[in-house]
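Let us practice reading a record.
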Amino acid sequence: MSNNKYFDFDLTPDLLEIIEEYKNDTAPIHRDLYMETIRAYSRELPEDQGEEVIDYFYRKRNLP
């Protein structure tokens, strides 16, 4: 079982932390900063998994 509800694979602790922080932040002004941080942390995952995370949060702009 994965350690998150978004994907069927495990995410790094740093990436999970930033997703949770993004989910709890009500200020839309920070959205782009979270998107860039999620994209950067996703690069640490295996290529196909990282692309899936980037596509879900960064390209499709899905909110956690």
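A brief commentary: Residues 44 and 50 are 7 Å apart (CA to CA).
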